[in-house]
Design goal:
The protein is α/β, with parallel strands linked by helices and about 525 residues long. The chain has helices at about 35-60, 65-75, 80-90, 95-110, 115-135, 155-160, 180-190, 290-295, 295-310, 340-345, 345-360, 375-395, 410-415, 430-440, 450-455, 455-470, 490-495, 505-515; strands at about 5-10, 10-15, 15-25, 150, 170-175, 195, 205-210, 215-220, 245-250, 255-260, 275-280, 315-320, 365-370, 405-410, 425-430, 475, 500. β7 and β8 form a beta hairpin.
Length: about 525
């Protein structure tokens, strides 16, 4: 029996896209290293590869540069270095962090030397560290043709982020979740996406239409029979206003509109004057592997790029929200932990990110946000890590600044006790996780969307209570509820006047706000 040409699905991100299907093969789970022996082997292979690369460079450089490279080769071939890293691997440390930790200690000794020549060598060791680290963690995902419609059971966030969406395209999933991470990414970049279409037969290259407005997948019988996007649907305004994200309600109260981003290139097409800044940067979508988490320079470049775009506006970067349903490639333990709990359990990860953030803070209005906070001690302990890393940076003469440190409010226990979080500088409500924990249902549950909708009154009541408990500290909201104009009045009534939403949702929330008073009631004449 021929497959139906029109399949009912569920909308996950609005819009319509038509193109050739790219049918994804199931992704096999990567095997974890069975023991520390594989870590030793990885290290040896990476050092040999780095040595070969440097030896090739010697023949292409002038004598002075050649001397520097020869020094680097000598360091790489020093058995003492390998032994020091090996000791950390034997103690259970991941090979990338074992390498970074060992080299950072060497670099610190050189930087603190009283001799200028020795201090200058620190840069050479830094180059070695980054070269071997890039080899240890060099991973790539197979991309798919630009303009294609991705078809598969599910999609990895890292694959979404690695793809160039500038030529269009869309996503049609057999399963998936409208509140999952890929759906969140698709909405943030206005990529049409549907989920729950069920298994359907389609050949690679066959044309397909994804209608994220109606929740429909249309299969074409021939590649040349392309169905253009329909023009008979209600028009949606996508114009962005250059109001710096500062609006007034009908009765004159100020409301701030910021944007959520997941990767630094997302801001390239967005004028900074359209928003009050970045209210949420989900760093785990830009730092996608254990190698990235160990790479301070890569993180520094990511965060610096966002601050340059913001041009003095506030940029709130959430520390890595990893663990649980957000695995970090290469991190095979502590899977039951998530967010700040995992960061505190694996301080080597937190310290690298803290250093990158401390160095970035001098370039603009950086704010750091902690994920999945439950207890006041979570904030206190992370603050101590920032203080310790600040002390080390000062000792090395590295410019830096401790930024304001706030927290996501997404655990009900924290929301009910915000007045106890004295060391948090600000609060931001994450309604996606807050709703999940209120209804005690995982997001992948088929009924979660229904539970989430039914939980709205409970979420709003909790938000209203939490805002009062926050006192004079700044509060904002950055979950999906913030970008839903049907909830704007309720959120204003709860006392929230700072919304952070996907850039595509800015026009809709602007329109909703201007017709409302500060307490969420409709303005006269509306």
């Amino acid at each position: 029996m021929a497959a139906p040409s029109r399949l009912k699905a569920t909308s996950a991100s609005p819009g319509v896209a038509t193109g050739p299907a790219y049918v994804a093969e199931p992704v096999a789970a990567a095997a974890s290293p069975p023991s520390s022996l594989s870590g030793h082997a990885e290290l040896g292979d990476a050092i040999r590869t780095a040595t070969r690369e440097l030896q090739n460079l010697v023949t292409e450089t002038d004598p002075d540069s050649g001397d520097i490279i020869e020094f680097q080769i000598e360091v790489l071939q020093d058995p003492t270095l390998t032994e020091m890293v090996g000791t950390r691997i034997d103690a259970g440390e991941n090979v990338a962090f074992a390498w970074v930790g060992t080299l950072d200690g060497y670099i610190l000794e050189l930087e603190c030397s009283e001799e200028d020549q020795m201090r200058a060598r620190a840069v050479d060791i830094l180059d070695i560290k980054n070269r071997v680290l890039s080899i240890l963690t060099g991973t790539s995902l197979d991309d798919f043709p630009a303009g294609s419609i991705y078809v598969g059971r599910d999609m990895e966030p890292s694959r979404f982020l690695a793809h160039d969406w500038s030529a269009g395209g869309g996503i049609a999933l057999y399963g998936g979740s409208a509140v999952g991470h890929v759906a969140l990414l698709a909405r943030s970049r206005s990529i049409p996406m549907v989920i729950g279409a069920g298994e359907f037969a389609i050949e690679g290259g066959q044309h397909i239409e994804v209608d994220g407005d109606l929740g429909v997948v249309s299969l074409q019988t021939a590649k040349e029979n392309t169905t253009p996007a329909r023009s008979d649907r209600p028009a949606t305004s996508t114009a962005l206003s250059a109001d710096n994200g500062r609006l007034r309600t009908a009765d004159g109260s100020q409301v701030l509109l910021s944007i959520n981003v997941n990767a630094p290139d997302e801001v390239d097409s967005i004028p900074a004057a359209t928003a009050a800044g970045i209210g949420l940067m989900r760093s785990e979508f830009a730092v996608t592997s254990l190698g990235d988490a160990a790479n301070e320079e890569k993180q520094f470049a990511i965060y610096r790029r966002l601050l340059d775009w913001a041009d003095g506006r506030a940029v709130t970067i959430r520390m890595l929200d990893i663990g649980g349903d957000k695995p970090l490639a290469g991190l095979t333990d502590a899977s039951s932990l998530r967010g700040v709990r995992l960061l505190l359990a694996r301080p080597e990860i937190a310290r690298v990110q803290a250093r990158a953030l401390l160095r970035t803070a001098i370039f603009g209005g950086l704010r750091v946000m902690l994920p999945m906070v439950t207890f006041p001690s979570d904030v206190d302990n992370m603050r101590e890590i920032f203080r310790e890393e600040s002390t080390e940076l000062a000792r090395r003469g590295v410019p830096h600044r401790i930024p304001p440190i706030g927290m996501m409010v997404e655990v009900p226990a924290a929301a009910l006790m915000l007045d106890r979080f004295e060391s948090a500088d600000f609060f931001s409500f994450g309604t996606n996780d807050l709703a999940q924990y209120l209804v005690a249902s995982p997001r992948e549950d088929a009924d979660f969307a229904l539970y989430q909708d039914r939980a709205v009154p409970a979420v709003l009541r909790l938000l209203s209570q939490a805002v009062k408990l926050a006192g004079a500290k700044p509060v904002s909201i950055c979950g999906d509820m913030a970008g839903d104009p049907s909830r704007t009045a309720d959120l204003l009534a709860a006392g929230i006047h700072h919304f952070s939403v996907a850039p595509a949702r800015l026009p809709a929330i602007r329109s909703a706000i201007v017709g409302l008073n500060a307490d969420g009631t409709k303005a006269a004449g509306e």
